[in-house]
Please model this.
Amino acid sequence: MYKILGSDQKEYGPITGEQMREWIAQRRANGQTQVLPEGATQWQPLSTLPEFSAALAMVAPALPIPGTFPGGPAPVAPKTSGLAVTSLVMGILGACTFGIGSIIGLILGLVSLNKIKKSNGQLGGKGLAIAGICVSVAVIPITAILAGLLLPALANAKGKAQTINCVNNLKQIALAARIYANDHNDTFPPTSTWCDALQTELGNSSKVLHCNADTTGQRSTYGYNLQLSGKKDGDVNPRTVMFFEIDGGWNVSGGPELLPQKPRHRQIVNIAFADGSVQQVRVSDLSQLRWNP
Model:
C-alpha cells in the first residue's frame, strides 16, 4: 500500500500497487510524485521504487494536465494587489499634489507589501508596491523643496495683489470725495460722517472702504484727514493727505497718529492726496507727508 503527496500538500491513499500503475498510465502520477510506502517513514520520489520502473518507462514524458494530478487543479496565478498599483500611481501623482499623493502612496505601498506577504501566494504585485514606495520616498523631499521655493513666491504675489487692490480702493474713494465736492459747492465731505456721505458716489459698496489685506474684520480700513473738514477744493494744496490707511473704524478722521502701527503691505502705506492721486509711501518717508491744507 502507498500514500501519495498531492500538489496541494495533502496526503491521498493508501492505494494499492495496481492502482498506482493505473495512475502512472493515466499520467496522474510520474517519477517526481512523492510517495510513502507502507512501513516507510520518509517520502520519496516514485522513480526510486523499482516495482514501478517498468510502468514509468512505458509512459512518455508529458506536461502535467491541469486537474489530473492528485491534489486538485493546477495553481492559479496570483491576483495583483490593487493597493500596490494605487501606491505607484499616488507616488507619481505626488509631484502634482505637493507631496500629499506621495505620502498616501508610501502608506499604501507598505500596507500592500504586508498583505502580499500574508496572502500565501494569492496576491501578487510585490514589485509594484516596492516601486510605489521608492517613487513616493523620492518625490516627497523634492516636492517639499519645491513648495519651500514656491510658497514664498505665492505669498509675495498675493501681497502685491492686495497692495494694488488697496491703491484702487483709495483712488475710488478720492474720486468720490472730489465728485462730492463738485456737487456741494466745492466743499469736501464732513470728516465726522465722511463714510456715509460718500456711499452714493461709491455705488453703495462698502467693499471699496475695506482693504483685502486687513484681518481684523473692520468695516472700513481708511481714515480721512481731519483738517479737510469744510475745506473747499481750491483752498487745499493738491499734495495734502486726504485719505490714508488706518487700523480700522467707520467715519474715522484724524492725522498721522492714526497710521497703522504694523503696515498691512510690509513697509508700505497707501496714501490718497487732495488732487485724487494715490501713492505707495514707505514707512521711512511718512514723516514727509503734508497734513496741513
Remarks:
- Helices lie at 17-25, 53-57, 82-93, 100-118, 126-183, 194-197.
